[in-house]
Amino acid sequence: MTPKPGPKLDATPQLGLPFVQQGPAHDLTYYIGICTVFAGYHKRWPTAQATREEFRAARIPGYDGRRLAREVRFPGPALAQDPSYQALQERCRAEGIDDGVGLAMLDPRHRSVLQDKDIAELFESLALAGDAEAGCVRYATGTALHAPDELTLHCGEAIRMRAVEAARLDALDPRVLRQMFSIRVHANDALKQFIDRVGLAYRSSDGLLADHYCLEASDDGRLSIRYQMVEGSRYAGRFDVARQTARLAAMLAARPDLARADGRKDAARERNAAVAAPRVGCDEELLRQLRTLTLDGSSLMLPIQALSRLSDIMLSVQEAGGVYRPRQQRFDFPDNTAAADVLGHLLARYEGA
Q1: Per-residue pLDDT tens for 191-244?
Q2: Counting CB atoms within 10 angstroms of each CB, which of 18, 20, 130, 252 has the fewest?
Q3: Contact 286, 350 (CB under 8 A)
Q4: What value, to the nearest 5°, has the Cα angle with vertex 232 and ends 117 and 177?
Q5: 213-217 and 150-155: which strand pairing?
Q6: Are the C-beta atoms of 267 and 170 separated by less than 8 Å?
């Protein structure tokens, strides 16, 4: 007896992939849909190491991590022409990612950036850190402690120099240098929500925000959030370089205590005279503060406390060949011997004064 034929089996998946286009056009939405389905099943975003069995378990036939990563990195015509994918490529170039668009870049946490209006609001709070009383300082430069929602903003060298030039200030004056590396902004709600949303190492509520993060405004208009104590940063969006430079120049020009460019020679002459002929009754103070400098390989490290004679110390060490690194609060020399020799020479110089 001939067996009765069973029902014809359909080779297509019974459950359609949500968000995934079923046609031939594989644009960015298609690949984000695949990753979303995978993440919904496995509770993690796919990587290039994901196996074919894992994709099959999530009811995504014909894919494994290597194939998915390859198609995203080397796009087909539909994907290459997708404006959203082109924006991701631009993000990779902006962040210096040489490998191109990877699967991690499709994760909504990585694709998220601050809106232009949020960055503009953030920069509206731009301020210069004023001098602080003893015991209320954060660094040896004497700048005030950060408020709970304050962050330091490091501007690119070109932005700083253009702002100083526009304000007609002496770019070599230590007071100007201190202000240029002590720029503050007040973290708005959009920035704090962004920090929490993209999954950075510390939440915005974990203690003093400035202990964990600082902001970087590059010369080409990229805003990044950088960790204070560990390596790494996160691209946050773009800003108007010309507007930022003009705002900073106006703030510097409003400070009456900063040396003007037309008085640069006189200011330099006064500083040199102060070092050559130390102030009466202050030799012991200068020597005591010089002794707080510590050797760290080829560098001289400044102490954490404020130094009243910082400008004299900076001038003396820089004249001896030290390169000041404001962010690290140190002076760098070519080698260990040079750093030790300079410290010994300065101590001997003022001990005999």
Answers
A1: 999 888 877 888 888 888 988 999 999 888 889 999 988 888 888 888 888 888
A2: 18
A3: yes
A4: 70
A5: parallel
A6: yes
